[in-house]
């Protein structure tokens, strides 16, 4: 049978899944946890604790009050030492709660046992509230607050819950390992999400380079009504929401529309697990799985890490050779961000810490565009990156808009492919910022 | 540990380079080049050497001293221009004319537009057409291919099959009589027609083309629509009156057809970006080639046809956009 995949563009970079099948280990607690108030897409949360206050694991530190925002809980127990700006994994200084860790005391109402609770007691409305309260965001990297996804507008119905187990970025294995170790919990989580979205069908998309996870999930899925597992042809960026929906059910979201416009809600497998823990165990989002990997890492690993742990704490655990490392990335090699400070904290969106060898950390030499069209043929959104890059540089915002620059998902496929090493995405990002500004201010004249 | 690099994503590169693409094209041209040495002897070697060397030198000098940039000779693009220019001229062309051809190709057609990737027209073709117009006599006295092994200087000259046919038809001769004056199609296809260096073996050019398709240096769109247009368009004439018009196969195996199809029309810098645009471009070149061969003043039309279509590439790029995600494509 021919494997499904998305229809436009795409590339297949070397997979380098060095940490595949490395069992998830608990990373030790940090001495000091740094918890930024903005770990999600949307408005920063409003801080609710004071300096000197004692907190437990699960204490609400900050409340997501805006429509698109998320609660933030203490990932450790101890004393709030400071509330001040700290450099985070995106390189910006952001207001953070700094906690001196003492012991490991959890809030009493959190079920910390290992029992799997399959019976879903909460009703739809309460599930949404719980997801909101527990500060769950998309753990695939976009960190979009999950409760917002399940607020389906009046009069619109959703048919499919799409679960993203694609993990199309090279190197990263955190989702793969989670599917293997926490498959059962994940299935319950998916049932919870199906209840929240009011759908009968859920499809888990997994790329075919994870045969063990596919087999494992298929075995358990039999016991859960309406959940199927679909192996997909390996192709980047299949983990993009739009590409995944296209691959699984052949529907393309029109520009500027949402998955719910084509009858879908999409969440990542890690999010499914987090929702399980939130709804069935009342556990807020205080830890996540982080892959530490790269060619200069002796023991590529998958860790369960408390949020707020400095990334620099994880490096020795995986025996990283920093001498030969030229770049450290928060996330995968295609869409991750290069770290400015190694002591930046692990946050809700940190799926991996990737070390790049010195020799590979510099970009290739830039030459003139030879109009080969390869950037265009790999673009999963059907754009013309060479053209967008030029008109973005020239500040032609109107033209950028009609050439659909805002559709760019910043997957980097164009830059990966360009034989002339052109910084297409740098220019396109600039163009998106300017064009987006133009569009937003247009109505206000 | 030293300083860490901070740059925007993506952080890995696929490893494809201009150099790899360009040298891939050069490799694809080698078989046909060797065939030209075999059939035309020392003259061909001399022409090729001079064309390549002068192209590379002109590119170096112009980049360094006029544009004041760092020359990037090893990208191979000047070598391609040199070989293509050599492929487009007869083996007994005087050295100084070849050098003028390189100067026009590199200096005028390429560097004056800003160098690699910025030229609207195929540089080698501009060079060739310039020479054809400026030195019509030297450019059209073709050494005849000796069927055994002609190492040594070419003495005899004669017309190409295309020219024979054109003249024959012009004189009102019968098609069967004209055909008796030229080698049969198998010979033409394998490589025994008089003409420019690169016209000598359709087969080896086809092989080079297949190699480039395999290496994904070119896509099938331009070659296929080009060939299809030639066969269909010339086929219509031939079916209408086989006594006045030659059959499509003749068009395919003669002149610079294979050279144009695989090496010059497919030049990525001067051809459209999208598959649809490429199909239209290829078809346009095919039809124009036949129009020129049938009605034009020159027996060969491939070069002119390609240059004419080069001129409309920006429009084709505006008209034929790629298939956008989430939208049935609408063409403006
Ligand atoms: S980064 Fe944007 S323009 Fe480049 S391939 Fe991805 S979607 Fe297309
Ligand atoms: S891939 Fe690079 S060289 Fe090719 S058209 Fe795009 S920008 Fe130009």
Would you spell out the secondary-structure blueprint of this structure?
The complex is a heterodimer of chains A (445) and B (332).
Chain A: E1 24-26, E2 32-36, E3 46-47, E4 54-55, E5 60-63, E6 72-73, E7 78-87, E8 93-101, H1 124-133, H2 146-149, E9 160-165, H3 174-181, H4 183-197, E10 201-207, H5 211-221, E11 227-232, H6 241-249, E12 264-268, H7 269-281, E13 287-294, E14 301-306, H8 311-317, E15 325-330, E16 337-338, E17 352-357, H9 374-378, H10 385-393, H11 397-402, H12 413-417, H13 424-442
Parallel strand pairs in A: 1-14, 9-10, 9-12, 10-11, 13-17
Antiparallel strand pairs in A: 2-8, 3-5, 4-7, 5-6, 7-8, 13-14, 15-16, 15-17
Chain B: H1 18-40, H2 42-66, H3 77-87, H4 95-110, H5 123-134, H6 136-139, E1 142-143, E2 157-158, H7 161-170, H8 175-180, H9 185-190, H10 202-214, H11 221-240, H12 248-253, H13 257-264, H14 275-295, H15 302-319
Antiparallel strand pairs in B: 1-2
Helix pairs in contact in B: 1-2, 1-3, 1-10, 2-3, 2-4, 3-4, 3-5, 4-5, 5-15, 10-13, 11-14, 14-15
The structure holds iron/sulfur cluster (2 copies).
């Amino acid at each position: 049978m021919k494997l499904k995949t998305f229809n436009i563009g795409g590339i297949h970079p070397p997979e380098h899944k060095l940490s595949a099948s490395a069992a998830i280990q608990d990373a030790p607690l940090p001495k000091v946890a740094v918890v930024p108030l903005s770990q999600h897409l949307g408005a920063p949360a409003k801080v609710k604790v004071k300096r000197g206050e004692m907190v437990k694991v699960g204490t609400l530190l900050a409340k997501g009050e805006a429509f698109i925002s998320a609660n933030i809980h203490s990932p450790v127990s101890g004393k709030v030492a400071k509330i001040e700006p700290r450099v985070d994994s995106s390189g910006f200084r952001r207001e953070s709660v700094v906690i001196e860790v003492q012991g490991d005391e959890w809030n009493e109402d959190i079920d910390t046992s290992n029992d799997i609770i399959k019976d879903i007691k909460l009703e739809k409305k309460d599930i949404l509230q719980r997801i909101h309260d527990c500060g769950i965001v998309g753990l695939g990297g976009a960190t979009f607050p999950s409760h917002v996804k399940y607020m389906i507008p009046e009069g619109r119905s959703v048919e499919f819950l799409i679960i993203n187990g694609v993990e199309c970025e090279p190197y990263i294995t955190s989702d793969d390992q989670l599917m293997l170790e926490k498959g059962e919990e994940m299935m319950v989580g998916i049932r919870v999400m199906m209840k929240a979205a009011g759908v009968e069908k859920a499809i888990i998309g997994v790329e075919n380079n994870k045969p063990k996870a596919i087999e494992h999930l298929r075995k358990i899925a039999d016991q859960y009504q309406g959940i199927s597992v679909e192996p997909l042809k390996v192709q980047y960026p299949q983990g993009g929401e739009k590409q995944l929906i296209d691959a699984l059910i052949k529907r393309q979201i029109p520009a500027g529309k949402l998955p719910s416009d084509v009858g879908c809600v999409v969440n990542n497998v890690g999010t499914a697990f987090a929702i399980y823990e939130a709804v069935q165990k009342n556990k807020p989002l205080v830890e996540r799985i982080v892959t530490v990997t790269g060619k200069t890492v002796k023991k590529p690993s998958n860790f369960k890490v408390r949020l707020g742990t400095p990334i620099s704490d994880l490096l020795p655990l995986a025996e990283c050779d920093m001498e030969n490392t030229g770049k450290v990335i928060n996330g995968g090699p295609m869409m991750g961000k290069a770290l400015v400070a190694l002591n930046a904290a692990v946050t809700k969106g940190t799926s991996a810490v990737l070390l790049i060898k010195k020799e590979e950390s510099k970009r290739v030499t830039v030459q003139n565009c030879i109009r080969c069209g390869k950037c265009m043929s790999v673009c999963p959104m059907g754009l013309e990156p060479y053209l967008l890059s030029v008109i973005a540089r020239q500040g032609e915002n109107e033209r950028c808009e009609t050439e659909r620059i805002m559709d760019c998902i910043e997957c980097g496929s164009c830059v990966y492919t360009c034989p002339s090493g052109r910084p297409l995405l740098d220019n396109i990002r600039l163009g998106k910022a300017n064009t987006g500004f133009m569009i937003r201010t247009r109505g206000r004249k | 540990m030293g300083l860490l690099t901070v740059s925007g994503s993506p952080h890995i590169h696929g490893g494809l380079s201009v150099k790899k693409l360009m040298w891939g094209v050069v490799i694809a041209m080698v078989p046909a080049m060797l065939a030209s040495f075999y059939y035309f002897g020392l003259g061909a070697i001399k022409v090729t050497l001079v064309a390549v060397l002068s192209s590379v030198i002109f590119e170096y000098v112009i980049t360094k001293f006029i544009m004041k940039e760092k020359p990037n000779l090893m990208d191979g693009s000047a070598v391609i221009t040199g070989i293509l220019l050599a492929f487009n001229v007869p083996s007994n062309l005087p050295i100084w004319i070849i050098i003028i051809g390189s100067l026009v190709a590199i200096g005028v057609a390429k560097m004056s537009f800003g160098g690699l990737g910025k030229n609207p027209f195929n540089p080698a073709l501009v060079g060739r057409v310039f020479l054809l117009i400026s030195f019509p006599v030297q450019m059209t006295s073709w050494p005849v291919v000796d069927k055994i092994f002609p190492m040594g200087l070419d003495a005899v000259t004669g017309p190409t099959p295309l020219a024979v046919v054109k003249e024959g038809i012009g004189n009102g001769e019968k098609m069967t009589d004209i055909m008796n004056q030229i080698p049969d199609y198998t010979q033409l296809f394998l490589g025994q027609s008089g003409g420019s260096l690169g016209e000598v073996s359709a087969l080896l050019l086809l092989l080079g083309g297949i190699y480039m398709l395999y290496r994904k240096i070119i896509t099938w769109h331009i070659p296929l629509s080009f060939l299809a247009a030639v066969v269909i368009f010339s086929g219509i004439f031939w079916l209408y009156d086989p006594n006045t018009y030659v059959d499509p196969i003749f068009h395919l195996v003669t002149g610079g057809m294979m050279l144009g199809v695989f090496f010059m029309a497919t030049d990525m810098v001067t051809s459209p970006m999208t598959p649809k645009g490429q199909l239209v471009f290829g078809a346009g070149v095919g039809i124009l080639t036949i129009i020129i061969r049938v009605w034009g003043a020159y027996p060969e039309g491939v070069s002119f046809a390609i240059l004419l279509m080069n001129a409309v590439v920006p429009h084709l790029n505006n008209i034929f956009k790629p298939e956008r995600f989430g939208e049935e494509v609408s063409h403006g």
